[in-house]
Amino acid sequence: MILHVQILSLLYSFIFGIVFFVLLEINYKLLYSGKLIYRIIISFMFIIVLSLSYFIGLVKVNNGIIHVYFFLSLFTGYLFSFVIYRKINCKKK
Prior knowledge:
By secondary structure, the protein is an all-alpha fold. It contains three helices and no strands.
């Protein structure tokens, strides 16, 4: 894989990690307003849709080639947004 495609894939994974965190927070806030069976089904469908959208995006960016460092970039984007979210919430209080 050429360098340009790798950089785009890492950037896509990082941004998707941020989007994943935001959508997970929204899902968490909306999730606890129904019955247990609905919560389980919604959580399962949420994870399936996000996983499929990540891999479909990887297919568009780099023909679906997966490396470990893409997942590390995804996790780094998630942690980055988690830290920013914590700092914003601490300043509110």
